[in-house]
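User: Please fill in residues for this 375-position structure.
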C-alpha cells in the first residue's frame, strides 16, 4: 500500500494566489512523475496574508511551521511575492530540512509567466527533502531548477541559522547584481504596470483634450517641424520622468529610507515603484501618441500642412508623426496635474510597501479576532 503524503501550498494574496490556483490541480501528478511513484501525493491549498507581510524570513518560517502543525501536513510550500536575501544575494528558494518547510520567493524568477518556473522549483526542492526519506527518484545532479535562471547562475548552499539552529538549503542567484536585477524585474511584474495604467484613464482624457485643442494652432505644427529628433526625444523623456515623479509625490509612494528598519528592502521597493510607473506612463504616452496621430491626420489636410511648413509638396506621414510626438509630450506634462484626481487607493495598490502594510493590518485584525473568539 502506498504511503500518503500531505503537501500544503500556502500563498500570499494576489500574484502568488493566482499562481497557486493554476498549479495546485496538476502538482500531485508532477510530484508522482518526478519524485516518487511509491507515494500518494495530496496537495492542499490556502491563502495567508502573513506570507506576503512578514518583515523577516524567520517570521515566515515560524508562521509556516505553525500552519504545517495545525493542518498536520507532511510538507509545506510557501509562495511569497516578497524579496528575500541571504547576506547580499537574492534568494530564490529556502528549504528548511528540519521542519520540512519550503519557501519560494517569486520575484527572484524575474519577469514573465511563473507557472512552469515554480512547478519545477517545487519539484526540485521537495526532492531535497524526499532525499532524506529514501524516496529519491530524481537525479541529484538534475538541472531542473537551473533552467529557470539561464542568465543568472544559481548556487546551492547549506546553512545553519543561529536563531533557530535549523539546517537549511538555500538557492542563491549569482552574481549579486544579476540577482538584484531579477528581483527588480520580478517585483515590477508583480506590481502589474498595466493595472497602474488603468488608473490613469482619466488623465488620458485630460491630456487628449488639452493636446487636441493645441492641434488646431499652426504654432505646434511649426515647432514640431523645426525641432530635431534629439530635442523631441529629450522632451519625451522629460515628460515621462516628470509625470512619474508627480505621481510619486502626489500619492506619497516613496518609502522613507532613514526611518526604515530594512533600508535595502525600502530602496528596492522605491526602485520597483519607479520602474512600474515608468512602464505605466510609457504605455500611457504611446496611447496618447496614437490618438494624436490619428486625430492630426484626419483634422489637418496634407496640402495645408505643407503650405504652412513651406514644404515643396504636401505633408508626409513624417510631419504628422512629429506633430503627434510633440503634442503627446506637451499633453503628458499638462495632464500630470490630473493625476491628483485619480483614486489614491488604486494607485497605491500598485506598490509593494502599501500592499505589505495592508496585509500586515489584516494579519493583526485576524489575530485579534481569533483571540477574541478564544476568550
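Assistant: Residues filled in for all 375 positions:
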Amino acid at each position: 500500500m502506498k504511503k500518503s503524503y500531505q503537501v500544503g501550498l500556502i500563498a500570499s494574496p494576489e500574484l502568488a494566489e493566482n499562481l497557486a490556483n493554476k498549479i495546485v490541480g496538476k502538482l500531485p501528478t508532477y510530484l508522482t512523475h518526478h519524485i516518487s511513484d511509491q507515494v500518494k501525493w495530496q496537495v492542499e491549498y490556502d491563502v495567508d496574508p502573513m506570507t506576503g507581510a512578514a518583515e523577516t524570513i524567520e517570521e515566515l518560517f515560524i508562521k509556516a511551521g505553525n500552519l504545517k502543525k495545525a493542518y498536520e501536513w507532511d510538507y509545506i510550500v510557501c509562495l511569497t511575492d516578497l524579496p528575500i536575501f541571504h547576506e547580499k544575494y537574492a534568494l530564490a528558494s529556502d528549504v528548511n530540512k528540519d521542519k520540512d518547510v519550503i519557501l519560494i520567493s517569486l520575484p527572484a524568477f524575474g519577469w514573465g509567466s511563473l507557472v512552469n518556473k515554480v512547478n519545477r522549483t517545487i519539484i526540485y526542492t521537495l526532492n531535497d527533502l524526499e532525499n532524506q526519506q529514501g524516496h529519491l527518484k530524481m537525479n541529484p545532479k538534475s538541472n531542473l531548477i537551473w533552467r529557470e535562471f539561464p542568465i543568472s547562475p544559481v548556487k546551492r548552499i547549506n546553512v545553519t541559522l543561529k536563531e533557530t539552529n535549523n539546517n537549511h538549503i538555500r538557492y542563491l542567484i549569482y552574481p549579486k547584481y544579476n540577482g538584484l536585477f531579477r528581483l527588480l524585474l520580478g517585483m515590477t511584474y508583480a506590481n502589474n504596470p498595466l493595472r497602474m495604467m488603468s488608473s490613469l484613464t482619466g488623465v488620458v482624457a485630460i491630456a487628449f483634450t488639452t493636446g487636441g485643442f493645441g492641434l488646431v494652432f499652426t504654432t505646434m505644427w511649426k515647432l514640431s517641424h523645426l525641432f530635431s529628433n534629439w530635442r523631441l526625444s529629450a522632451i519625451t523623456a522629460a515628460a515621462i520622468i516628470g509625470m512619474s515623479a508627480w505621481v510619486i509625490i502626489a500619492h506619497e509612494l516613496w518609502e522613507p529610507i532613514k526611518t526604515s528598519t530594512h533600508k535595502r528592502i525600502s530602496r528596492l521597493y522605491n526602485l520597483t515603484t519607479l520602474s512600474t510607473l515608468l512602464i505605466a506612463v510609457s504605455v500611457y504616452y504611446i496611447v496618447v501618441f496614437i490618438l494624436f496621430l490619428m486625430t492630426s491626420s484626419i483634422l489637418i489636410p496634407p496640402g495645408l500642412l505643407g503650405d504652412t511648413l513651406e514644404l515643396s509638396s504636401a505633408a508626409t506621414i513624417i510631419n504628422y508623426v512629429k506633430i503627434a510626438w510633440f503634442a503627446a509630450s506637451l499633453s503628458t506634462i499638462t495632464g500630470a496635474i490630473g493625476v491628483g484626481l485619480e483614486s489614491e487607493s488604486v494607485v497605491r495598490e500598485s506598490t509593494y510597501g502599501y500592499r505589505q502594510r495592508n496585509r500586515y493590518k489584516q494579519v493583526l485584525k485576524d489575530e485579534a479576532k481569533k483571540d477574541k473568539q478564544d476568550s
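For context: Strands lie at 3-11, 39-47, 75-80, 85-86, 89-96, 101-105, 154-160, 167-173.
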